[in-house]
Amino acid sequence: MSSILETKIAIVTGAARGIGLAIAEAYAEQGATVVLADIDAVAGEAAAAGIERGEFVACDVTDEAQVEALVAGTVERHGGLDVMVGNAGIATVSPIVSMSYEDWRRVLAVDLDGVFLCTKHAAGAMAASGGGSIVNIASIKAFGGAPATGSYGAAKAGVVSLTKTVAMEMRDHGVRANAICPGWVETDMVNDRKAELEAVLGLSFDDYIGHVQGGRLGTPAEIATLAVFLASDRSRFSSGSTYNVDMGATASLV
Ligand SMILES: NC(=O)c1ccc[n+]([C@@H]2O[C@H](COP(=O)([O-])OP(=O)(O)OC[C@H]3O[C@@H](n4cnc5c(N)ncnc54)[C@H](O)[C@@H]3O)[C@@H](O)[C@H]2O)c1
Known about the structure:
Layout: E1 9-13, H1 18-29, E2 33-38, H2 41-49, E3 54-58, H3 64-78, E4 83-86, H4 101-128, E5 132-137, H5 150-170, E6 175-182, H6 188-191, H7 194-201, H8 205-213, H9 220-231, E7 242-245
Parallel strand pairs: 1-2, 1-4, 2-3, 4-5, 5-6, 6-7
Helix pairs in contact: 1-9, 3-4, 4-5
Bound molecules: nicotinamide-adenine-dinucleotide.
Nicotinamide-adenine-dinucleotide (NAD) binds next to α1, α4 and α6.
């Protein structure tokens, strides 16, 4: 694949690190202009500085005025919006029975409300200029229970549902929407929570990954490569779909 995103204008939320940063880098490598949006301005500015045709915009995806300004500013500076990646997310480790309501609401606010706001404003802007592609980052936890990540799984199931709905609603306006559902990927989100997860799971994280996912974490780049395809015109017949990238984790019954 060479330069398949030439002339595309893309926003990637949560792009200061991890999967979002890998997607921003992969988009730029394929010729796109990339707006990296994140709540972490220090890491976001540094990330954008290393990306050709990359720029940073501070944005908290839970704040509708900030999301609206992110989309409107991108359209104003670059003449349109072709791709929105709803990637910003947080996770907590807590069983349902001991989870505080505040904790539940915080995860839903970023992981589901944030994706709703970005999808809403991007879809409107894309429709106004002839179409585009929305790529939301959900998780395989949308499809089943996983211990101690109930708020996260519920939010991701919501992301899958809203992505399918907007795909249907916007089909006649040239706007496609798909969700990527990664398995376990090596980022700060996972590394920072390994000890908590081991305590809840009662086994080592390595043993757990060996069982569910063939023994290794995915890399952010392995998620980004699918995000490139879904942003590009090569996926023009794909909309309303979910794509698992999990080394068979969701295929296994054992
Ligand atoms: N790492 C995994 O195993 C994994 C698996 C499945 C899905 N995902 C999803 O992929 C996405 C990226 O995860 P990651 O592992 O790269 O996480 P990460 O923690 O490494 O990066 C997340 C980024 O989102 C930003 N962010 C958090 N709250 C924000 C807000 N309110 N507004 C704007 N930006 C905000 C953070 O500052 C950070 O830069 C998330 O949606 C996550 O749920 C991750």
